[in-house]
Design brief:
Blueprint (H helix, E strand, L loop, with lengths): L2 H9 L14 E5 L2 E4 L4 E4 L2 H4 L8 H13 L10 H14 L4 E6 L2 H16 L3 E5 L8 H4 L16 E5 L14 H16 L7 E4 L15 H10 L4 E5 L26 E4 L10 E6 H4 L14 H16 L2 H20 L5 E7 L2 E6 L9 H13 L2 E2 L1 E3 L6 E4 L7 H18 L1
Helix pairs in contact: 3-10, 4-10, 7-8, 11-13, 12-13
Length: 427
């Protein structure tokens, strides 16, 4: 056990998860690579849990942060803040939500917490719909709507949460149906559920479930849900903490795959926009955002240094069409991994969009989750010089692949080859 690991265990919570039998200390990064304290270089296919969106040590972001730090780092929302206004203007325009207002937080958890506050206040009810297998953060309220037992340490909650079918396409009672019938069955289930409760404040849903293993419904499910929800005024909250900013390649926001009934009422974001700086936020129609009848501030949300990073990072993303790169390179990576999976009995499914890819593992010859092999593949990939993530919900185990959106074709091929060797070592 190295000294830093021993010190970590002495002063930090036992429940603070660490990857690897011998935990890794990452000391620096550049582009799509990071280095550990022993000088080993790794191709990073997880990006600090989808947070390093463009590249490690991106010069444009580094320059913006350095210059802003030389002027002022922080003043709070009690004062006018030019970088915050400028970033809010850009996000409001990009969100697709009419007459949008933006509130900045420091994390996705806090963003979802704020969205729940807005929805329950606006609708005057604490009943919330959430998806099975979902994850929305680690605060008291966001844990209360998380439909993933492994990440929900308490059943106590300020909210009454009802869980809906549909977030996982290839498991559950409707898995054998075609896409059209799957959506119809989920909508029928939603209608039945609503018949047994007072009208909920909102449905909160990840367009692609992150911690749950990068699972998703057929396109249009949430649009069909929204038609039902609009009948009684229930809001739709799109949790874009992991799917936003073009990661899926086909769309800038994950909700756009379900946009037939219009944009969501509330959108939450975080992770990639800061490229490692602590930014989260909420976008909502003005009458929803302005429904609170008491004062509020944010001490650290929207602070100047993080806003400078967000502006520079968003500009780089748009100027270099990283959404298009995610679509092109991600498509190649998915097909490469599917070709490998076809030869391995332990790989149940390769799924995802753009550079948000899940590889679900099972015990060969069964349909049972194989978390032991998932952990072994994670270790073997590290030994080969590749960092990936893992996830999954009820009786599932999945590898999560989400590199920076500037990933090159050569790096995608290199990572796929390392992951293939890791998978073959386990199966």
């Amino acid at each position: 056990m190295n000294d830093l690991f021993a010190r970590h265990r002495q002063v930090l919570p036992d429940w603070l998860a660490l990857y690897y039998d011998e935990p890794l200390e990452i000391t620096h990064g550049e582009g799509r690579h990071v280095w550990d304290a022993d000088g080993n270089r790794y191709l990073d296919f997880f990006g600090g849990i989808l947070t390093t969106m463009t590249a490690h040590a991106l010069p444009e972001v580094t320059k913006a942060v350095t210059e802003q730090a030389g002027r002022i780092i922080h003043s709070s929302t009690l004062y006018l803040n030019r970088p915050m206004v400028e970033l809010a203007e850009r996000i409001a325009q990009l969100s697709g939500i009419p007459d949008a207002r933006v509130f900045f937080t420091t994390s996705g958890t806090e963003a979802n917490d704020t969205a729940l506050l807005l929805a329950t206040t606006y609708r005057r009810t604490n009943t919330v719909l959430a998806m099975r297998n979902s994850y929305h953060g680690r605060s008291f309220s966001s844990v209360g709507i998380t439909g993933n037992k492994g990440w929900s340490p308490t059943s106590l909650s300020p909210l009454q949460t009802l869980y809906v079918h549909g977030g996982v396409r290839t498991r559950g009672p409707f898995a054998e149906l075609n896409d059209r019938d799957f959506i119809a069955a989920c909508v029928a289930d939603l209608r039945d559920l609503l018949g047994h409760t007072r009208p909920p404040a909102a449905l909160i849903a990840e367009p692609i479930q992150g911690v749950g293993g990068f699972t998703s419904p057929p396109d249009g499910l949430y649009a069909a849900f929204r038609k039902v929800l609009q009948e009684q005024g229930t809001l739709w909250i799109a949790d874009e903490v992991q799917t936003g900013w073009g990661r899926t390649g086909e769309h800038f926001w994950g909700w756009q795959a379900h946009g037939q009934s219009g944009p969501p009422d509330i959108l939450t974001f975080a992770k990639g926009i800061g490229n490692g700086m602590s930014i989260g936020g909420v976008v909502a129609r003005s009458e929803i955002m302005n429904c609170l009848d008491s004062n509020s501030i944010s001490t650290f949300g929207g602070t100047q240094i993080t806003m400078a990073a967000g502006l520079a990072n968003l500009s780089y993303l748009l100027d270099h069409d990283l959404q298009g790169n995610a679509r092109r390179v991600g498509g190649l990576l998915i097909e490469r991994l599917r070709a490998v999976a076809a030869q391995l009995p332990g790989v149940r499914e390769v799924r995802g969009r753009g550079l948000m890819i899940g590889v679900e593992l099972v015990k060969p010859g069964t349909d049972e989750a194989d978390p032991k092999s998932a952990a072994a593949v994670l270790e073997a990939a590290r030994e080969g010089g590749l960092l990936i993530g893992k996830g999954g919900g009820h009786n599932t185990s999945a590898l999560r692949i989400a590199p920076p959106l500037s990933l090159t074709v050569a790096e995608a091929e290199e990572g796929a080859a390392i992951l293939e060797r890791a998978l073959r070592s386990a199966y």
